[in-house]
Design brief:
eight-stranded mixed β-sheet, homohexamer, elongated, three-stranded parallel β-sheet, alpha/beta
């Protein structure tokens, strides 16, 4: 089972999805941000965890009940520290999950839930405290549209391939996926980059021009950054 | 004219649209949730009322003014306790109504307004205190896109057939429609179901497994629920 | 360079985009409201400024870097009191700008930023205090999708033609564009119209019928309005 | 009942929808072309007729059969020389009609069928010989999505308001609607305009510049046109 | 492995997808028609076969080549008499397959290919003679957007759940899926229903009313049908 | 002015857009195929030419006539051998051009017209013989939606950046753009690749497996290809 050290987890908690997509892009990973997937409320806490996947296919009247309760199993089997990522084919006409299911994930120490479909009972979901991301609220029960089919396969979510074991990070702007084999270096670079951004934000607020400061730092900016770091 | 007892109204005020769509689905009513129709602000009060309908058709330059002010009539004629439901063909390029019209509904004791188009002056609408649901804000005046044509016909709203006299319920996740002839039993079941959910949420928060608890309760869960109800 | 007096600016700060689209419509200007362009947060301050434009075209791998940093230049050259309006072809798969760029606009005294694509680092953008409008949040860096190509040309934004020098006004419902040659009269009429709306809202709240009051005022309403104005 | 003389009918059979939308636009009628509504096959004969309307609303499981067979009535009651125009809310997930229904329209001397949803049995429809326009083919039977509700009301079709009695014209590019009170003059102008286009096409094919020829004719072009007309 | 007798195959070759969706709907199967999936050319031969499935997920730059050539394997392993059904998530920005791959399916005696994405080299595909269905043509090579991931799983295609072993039928209006356990009775009913339609079409063409004939046959129509059958 | 030798032109006339997108992709050019842009009829001749661009912005009632007739100028100034590529923002609600304009392009020796909006008078356009590509037919005159603004700028068309001087190639599957500095080598490779495809198609039709043949050729396949070439 994939793992994520407390250090990396904390580091990723302090960096934004914008910083991460920028660093992933530099490595040629251009499609790691889930399109049209949002926090259920703007003020929700950030999310860091390891991907555990569930795949929905469309409901078919002759197959109802043929798979047991895969959805319930997902809530019972998603390991602590993991994020349940759901492939709902971008279809939010019926819910991907609701507050009781998500409450169970929370109680079991999971790190969040992400679907490119909808979530129901958003008020109840909010009360569970678990970071939850979806396309939009959706009250109808999932079997109207979805049949949960399997767990643990690579899936599509928000137009992005999500593999079990991927690192999943969410903030108020959405959700990004990081391959586990580069997460350590990405986290380290992200912390450094976030620090530079903090410095640059201060400079910009004081009226400094972007030229030589951002997006590319010249020697002077690098020197000032070193001084700023020491003086913090 | 359709009616809704205070008891049923209060009961529906305390249950969520997710609970209602679940119960409607069990009766084979699969398409009662208005798709892509949202409260104008997340914190808005819940809504319960009886449907009174207005139908827009597209504006045509040679027909302007040919119908008198159907829109104004809607605001003056929608009965107290009713929700004005507007068929805007899902088109939010121009508004379905604004704060003065909606203020009049509020002053006349109506229960809310729902459109699958847009509302304008959302800040003013919020001040009226009337629950208001739409697809998205839209500032342009309605005649740019819409001709209000008739009142009191069955319409489409958010992909759902809404008949005058239907019961309309809204919460932070959206709007659901209930046929009036089953509203009493749906309300009773919804209250019971909401109580069970409250029990189950507590159990889940304490770490209980979903197996045998939700979505299907086994004998043990039923027994524990009875005990919990008595101890409240 | 276009100019906007402090008086007009303050007047426009106090009127809503609904009022403005109504007045523009009466002059035959039917398409001045940017469709699907929203404040990054509901509570954001209103925006009034003069349009300064940037045009994106799609990225092409063989053209990367061929234009210098047009995006940085936009942030350095957008004049104080101006709104940077970005033609992102409605494509929010990658960001149009982020918090450092927008912080520079704020520091330089610009009036806002508007894109029909996405903005990244929305929390940081919020901290800059600059009114910012977009289609939806978007974390990926802009070069994945966009090549900034030129500044100062008429563009499309949210389905509306925006010419440099146009007056741009934003509130919680979205963004509207006003031709500079009629902004003085539009502002004056908007203030008057807003005052009448305030009067009418009070009347409606007291239970007065819309007939003769709104949308068309009869003699009685006009008289009452005059009395109300004196008594304020 | 609206009427259309054989002369006007024949005139409209010889002019294209492009010519008609141009002439309607000059009278301020800007939205008379049905968007996304196409002939079922490119080679289909042109269509001219008077609008007879049917309105679908979404299906609801508790209302099935509550309206008798409105759809069958439409096929039996649409008068000869008329076009059955269907408001399917742009929804082609299930059919608006099929070959037997359309065969009956053909047998009864109707002039065509138009829907902004889908038609089924397109091969069979083609065999009936009746001009038929839709968004796309759709095999599922209509009750899966649609409840036919009423006949003879103004409706929306392809984003255009269609009133019973309107003149409906279709060619290989789509369908246009003409108000009956101006159809005589529109038809006359369209014939004249089509003749000029024929002349101009010949000139353009011979290498003549568009300047002074099209879209605005100068005196020379007008003179040449007169000569050309005589020499035909 | 699922099987399909020559008799059933031939029966299904002679009935339309409209007839089949009607019969499936009567058994409560409401979502068996693939939405927005079309023959590559209108005149293409009909298709009957057994579903063999391939699932694409989105491409990811760090996973290229990690699955061997699943796509090539699909073409080599799809059994004779089977239809390769591809889950492309409705994404036609890059191709699902091209003429060489499809030529191999044809050479191996497969019955067709269906994707809810795009096909490339449509002229070459046409030359292979294999029935081919897609959303629209798409020239770019599949790896730009798609990673072929697995064969033989239930998938989504055109919004429909397709299980390996399902019977897949295509005509000029699109593609429908039939559960294998009811295909015999569906085929028999479809042939009978098609015969009645042929009779009814003739009657309608002769001017007979739909009342009592279609969609519901009365005793007279049943009697006439029996006579007609004998006289054929 | 960009140029294109007769040899390259003829080579490109004989290769498909699928072959070209494949070769461009190998050079890292992943977005050169115009999405949702189609030939006006399936049987239209192929197109090869050099890009000459026109940019539309949305119409605004206060700017009508402010640019002279840019559209007419486009038809008079697009050089022989060039393709007029139009940025219509993917908006086909009104036409980008019609048969007289396109007839003039044909008479002047231009190579084609491409828009991501619509074309009107498609029958007339077909008669001009000029290859013409669009999103869908659209009868309404362009000023209802579009203001032609400038010629000769890089534009977006079908989601692709098109620079003046780019090589534009169209077949029955759509349109692809080639940077002029690599067109010679792309053309040469495309001819070679097309020849191999022809060989491979023959082999596949004879029953040869794809393994070692396509998409990757092994030594045996290379040897057989050499023999086949000599025997042609």
């Amino acid at each position: 089972m994939a793992d994520l050290s407390a250090t990396i987890r904390e580091a990723l908690m302090r960096v934004g999805t914008s910083t991460l997509t920028g660093l992933l892009n530099r490595r040629g990973l251009k499609n790691m941000y889930l399109q049209d997937v949002w926090p259920i409320r703007p003020g929700m806490p950030r999310m860091v965890g390891i991907a555990f996947t569930m795949r929905f296919i469309p409901t078919r009247e002759d197959k109802v009940g043929s798979r047991g309760n895969v959805q319930q199993r997902a809530m019972e089997e998603c390991p602590p520290g993991h994020v349940l990522v759901v492939d709902a084919r971008g279809d939010a006409r019926a819910a991907s999950a609701g507050d009781l299911y998500i409450g169970r994930l929370a109680a079991r120490g999971c790190a969040g839930i992400v679907t490119d479909g909808g979530l129901r009972d958003s008020e109840g979901v909010l009360k569970t405290g678990l970071p939850a991301y979806h396309r939009r609220p959706s009250s109808p029960p999932s079997p109207i549209v979805h049949q949960p089919y399997d767990l643990g396969l690579p899936i599509a979510c928000g137009g992005v391939a999500v593999y079990p074991g991927d690192i999943v990070v969410g903030d108020c702007d959405g959700v990004v996926v990081i391959p586990p084999d580069i997460v350590d270096e990405i986290a380290a670079e992200a912390v450094a980059s976030t620090l530079y951004d903090e410095f640059a934000e201060g400079e910009v607020a004081k009226g400094r021009s972007l030229v030589g400061l951002f997006p590319v730092a010249n020697d002077e900016a690098k020197r000032d950054f070193e001084i700023w770091k020491k003086s913090r």
